[in-house]
Amino acid sequence: MEEGIVETPEERLAKQHRKEKKDLQAKIQSMKNAVPKNDKKRRKQLTEEIAKLEADLSQKHEEELRQLESTNDTKAEEVINGVETMKMEGGEQEEVKQPRVTKAQRRRDKKAAQEKERESRIAEAEVQNLQGVRHQEGLKLAQKLTQQQLQIKEISSDGHCMYRAIEDQLAQRSKPGLTMSVKELRSRTAEHMRSHADDFLPFLTNPNTGDMYSTDEFEKYCNEVEHTAAWGGQLELQALTQVLHLPIEVIQADSPAIKIGEEYNSEPITLVYMRHAYGLGEHYNSRVLKPLIPRLTNLSVLLLNNNSITALPAELLSLQHLAELNLGNNALKEVPTVLGHLESLRKLYLFSNQITVVPPDVIVGLQNLVVLNLNHNQIQRLPPEIKSLSKLQHLSVMDNKLEEVPAELGHLTKLSEINLTSNKLSWLPQQLYQCKDLTKVHVARNKLTSLPEGIRALTKLQVVDVAGNKLCMFPVEFHLLSLKELYCEGNRFVHCEPMPSEQDAEVLSLKELVARFVLQEDRNKFSLVHRMLPYYPCLTALLASGSCCALCLGPFLTTWLECVHFISLRKDMKMKSSLTIPVRALLCSYKCFNTDGHPYYGVATR
């Protein structure tokens, strides 16, 4: 069989190099076509860029050839070493012929290597210089734009950059009749130049003869403007100001801004001229306003209510002086995590959203919060971390789906108003009474069957709203509060309907007898029991649930007899209302209950 021809590595590499050179020539030709022939400045820049591309490719090819030669030398050495070993084993020695290199060839190779190294250093220096100049240009432009609260918007460098930048500016204005595509802008520019040839011909000269363009040459120039990716310059900008009836401002790094079409009083189109952006010169970028939020560093109040907001941007982090934020009546489904970083926030309104979760990490970050409004959401629980809101004064979670509230609410010692109306609460934690500054408690329209004992501790309480619950009476000593307003309609209060009852013989357990003795002794600060009780924390915790008889004032542990007395709000609590409410009372024994003259009634169960 006839064997196929196999390419050597040298042949494959040479084939690859020929293809890369061909591709580069095609790229160079397209670059030349994009630059007007009469623009000497751009032609010079283009020549420099082409030389750099050719040098880079040449350097790449030389490096690949060196790597291939190095690989071949290594393989040859391995083969020679193997052959020598075989010859030594066989006892035969043969001379290995080495190719001779003449002195002239060595001199030529050395000179070529030095020349290539020199070209490589020049190309590298040019790249570094270009990068440095480009960086400085970018810094200067950014500084100028910042003064106008602007920033660069990048436009692709495909020969249409000037027209694309103007297209972008027109789109930003969002005015009917002003938006134009690149194709339309080019067409209108060429049309205007043709119809005003006398204004443009004096500035167009043949690069070879220096003569002013002929009619044919001018028409060719206009055709290139209209149908090719020819770069636009000052002549095209002049035409565009007339077409759009708008001034055009060109911001440059090292020169004052140029304003074309000053006869128009409208807001100018602003282009950013980049001399060193892509190594070809004459690139135009657009501009946009800097994001609004990061510029509002001193903003203290932000009202975003009555929108359709579903999330908040991370830029809000820059508002480190924000004290009040209203996000009410939006479409948020959870408390945005970005809020946890606004440490200066004092008032936060999140009412009428779709919030189901209050993330603990957000709550922890709002330690300066004074007002928190979560009304009209779908929140099922408040996290225990709410205790970190040590400065909170107003908490409102009305119309949600709360079934319980955390005992950690007791840590909010500065809380003055709490609104838990219209939830699904069946009980309240007794720790709520640790909030000594409470003046208003709203828990209407829940499922409460009782209020925790100890409410007398809230000495500043003025308003209580428990309407629409399942209360049968108010807690012990409720009538001793200095209330101004009480709303309690729609409950299941006990009624005063006296009836005979049977009294069982009193037999107190040993535990109850000892507890009553210890509680009585603990009242004497000089007694041994009072001094030793702190050393028995379990016993102290057990006795903490003890009560006091409403008649004899004697202490007891287990509720022996639950009674009720009826309080007139107007007569007994000095309120305007004429209602009479049932207030719970506890007696220590039937002995006290059977004494004459007291207002207490035993509570009968049916």
Describe the structure.
This protein is α/β, with parallel strands linked by helices and 606 residues long. Helix content is 35%, strand content 12%. It contains 14 helices and 19 strands. It has helices at residues 9-33, 40-90, 103-146, 161-173, 182-195, 197-200, 215-227, 234-244, 360-364, 510-522, 528-532, 537-543, 569-572, 590-593, and strands at 150-153, 248-251, 258-260, 269-274, 283-289, 301-303, 324-326, 347-349, 371-373, 394-396, 417-419, 440-442, 463-465, 485-487, 547-548, 555-556, 561-568, 580-587, 601-602. Strands 6-7-8-9-10-11-12-13-14 form a 9-stranded parallel β-sheet, with no helix packed on it. The chain has a 5-stranded mixed β-sheet with strand order 1-5-4-2-3, with helices on both faces. Strand 4 (269-274) and strand 5 form a beta hairpin. Helix 2 (40-90) packs across helix 3 (103-146). The relative contact order is 0.05. Its EC number is 3.4.19.12.
What keyword list fits this structure?
five-stranded mixed sheet; single chain; nine-stranded parallel sheet; 14 helices; alpha/beta
Summarize the structure.
This protein is of the alpha/beta class and 606 residues long. Helices cover 35% and strands 12% of the residues. Helix 1 (9-33) packs antiparallel against helix 2 (40-90).
Strand content: 5-15%
Q: Residue ranges: pLDDT <50 for 5 or more in a row?
A: 83-97
What is the CA-based Rg, rounded?
46 Å
How many H/I helices? Answer: 14
* Share of helical residues: 25-40%
Head-to-tail CA distance between termini = 113 Å
**Spatial strand sequence of the major β-sheet:** 6-7-8-9-10-11-12-13-14
Q: What structural class results from the helix and strand content?
A: alpha/beta
Q: What is the CATH architecture annotation of the domain at 150-289?
A: Alpha-Beta Complex
Shape: elongated
Tell me the number of strands: 19
